[in-house]
């Protein structure tokens, strides 16, 4: 096993003797065997162990065993305890997902801080088979068929060419001690059910199951790469971004033959589910769904006239801001306040107003049903909602545009858009200038 292990490392240039390696160790047979292989072949490595405290006394014994192994191999070990249940509740995710997120976040920090070349994990070919089956059940598509990569970025899995039986046999021959995790025997977990019941039955008919999957993943990786290149090309064609939103060209998307796959690729980082994606595709093919919205845990998507607009969900800013004096005008978010005695031709994002026309307290708030004012240059009232429509504001802009309300309830300014005719400047003296800067 040692010879095959090192030959594979050299052949595929996974890492070198000069590299500083960090090995994630659980105390189980796979990671302990990997530690002993690295030690026997004189690679430079340290250990890292996560204690999630899920099995009370057993978790503590795992930690102690890993400390003992590090001492035996004369290497450094990093150990961290995690409050997993709190993290699950806060982020509303499963224990398995939370454990993965937390450990890889910590591993990444250690790689940078301690200047390690690579992180090693002890995944083997049985893990590869299980992962592909799980991905198929989850509907992850061709990308999921790649299973587990032997080397990706700074993570390397050098045991992927071995199966579980080979690893256990090596441990037995070399008299290597390790810890048994009894939770791995519980078939209520999907992976354990596959490992203990389903895959063994398949292997009776297909003894070379792991080798077959390894060969197939090489093809799947290449094919997935081709598909990803195609989708990245479509992304560039359909998507535009700015600092706080992403726009998908609705009309160009409708022309695509594979729009379901394309929209899945674009929306994946924003946590929309499969049902939402299907409803979205149905909605954009119809003419009268402008303004319809979809919410994920992290983002909001609005169907606009020409675009699908995606923005992160932020906590609502205080609905109404009250301004009690001239000096407090400088506290309006995104507004620059100054006093002046001269007026230049105002831009769309500027308001000039006489101090004597202000009645405190002044409000800054979003539109309410029935709000109206007299737009500058006109002599009749007009609904704010009609102004928004004339200005072709999308749903996000309608929600976020604020109004400056005088103490007598007059709307002085649709901030950044239009001012009220009633507050037109007659004399250039004791003026206030407000300048809106949109983020």
Give an overview of the whole structure.
With 439 residues, the protein is an alpha+beta fold. It has three domains: 2-221, HUPs (Rossmann fold), CATH 3.40.50; 242-312, no CATH class; 320-436, 3-Layer(bba) Sandwich (Phenylalanyl-tRNA Synthetase, Chain B, domain 3). Helices cover 40% and strands 20% of the residues. It is built from 14 helices and 21 strands. The chain has helices spanning 2-12, 29-40, 57-73, 84-91, 95-113, 125-138, 164-173, 190-205, 209-238, 250-255, 259-267, 274-284, 384-390, 395-400; strands spanning 20-24, 44-51, 77-81, 118-120, 151-152, 155-156, 239-241, 246-249, 293-295, 299-303, 307-312, 320-323, 335-340, 350-354, 362-366, 372-373, 382-383, 402-405, 411-414, 418-419, 431-436. The strands form five sheets. A six-stranded mixed beta sheet has the order 3-2-1-4-6-5, sandwiched between helices. The chain is elongated. The two termini are 60 Å apart. The mean pLDDT is 87.
CATH first level of the largest domain: which class?
Alpha Beta
How far apart the termini lie comes to: 60 Å
CATH topology-level name of the largest domain: Rossmann fold
Largest sheet report = 6 strands, mixed
Mean pLDDT: 87
Strand content: 15-25%
CATH architecture of the largest domain: 3-Layer(aba) Sandwich
Molecular shape: elongated
